[in-house]
Amino acid sequence: MCKILFNEEGDFHSGALILVDKPLKWTSFDVVNKIRWCLKSACGKIKVGHAGTLDPLATGLVIVCTGKWTKRIEDYMAQEKEYVATLCYGAVTPSFDLETLPEGDFPYRHIDRPYLDRVLERFRGVITQVPPAYSAIRVDGDRAYKKARKGNEIEMPARQVVVNELEVIDFNLPDLTLRINCSKGTYIRSLANDIGQACESGAYLAGLRRTKIGSFQVEDANKMEDLVAFLQTKL
């Protein structure tokens, strides 16, 4: 049975909130479009939107709102996020993740746990980061990733974000797995790249899963295939 939270009127036009565990290689827009397509036959034209983009190479929690509850999207987007991220030391990528190929050969054997703990302390609290060029941020009216994929040089504006918690889950070089609780607008890919540089090495984001948005948890989210089957058979 799929979990869908409705308002008191109990229909998708009046407002529903759907937690989705986004599959690997799906975009957040793929999730929205699939749900909109499933609702079309029973509901006709209907507003559907998501509360925060999750990269195609990431999995995990996406909040989808329908109907009148799309007005709440900005509120959900403003809430803190939690991620489990795996960094791989020894190389970097232009996109800061595996959308582009790793390059370089950086030393990392000098990174022991005390050294790592000292470095990570610099990334807790209010920090300044530069978003990756391979992102959906608009630069001169166009998405940055479109310019980056054409090989254009892009100067991304720095921004302040807040990292509330940064916990080591597993440390087994060249891999490092972190639990990260952070503010809206934090790019985990940039965090991975910056931590690599701060360790006098290089690192990229090898895996990412969003586990929380505010009080919502991925454990309570619907698998995409279960949700689609439910919407196609129950409406």
From TrEMBL:
Residues 42-188 form the Pseudouridine synthase II N-terminal domain. Its EC number is 5.4.99.25. One of its GO terms (biological process) is tRNA pseudouridine synthesis. One of its GO terms (molecular function) is RNA binding. Keywords: Isomerase, tRNA processing. Residues 189-229 form the tRNA pseudouridylate synthase B C-terminal domain. The active site is at D55. It is an enzyme of class 5 (isomerase). It catalyses: uridine(55) in tRNA = pseudouridine(55) in tRNA. Belongs to the pseudouridine synthase TruB family. Type 1 subfamily. Responsible for synthesis of pseudouridine from uracil-55 in the psi GC loop of transfer RNAs. This is tRNA pseudouridine synthase B. It comes from Odoribacter splanchnicus.
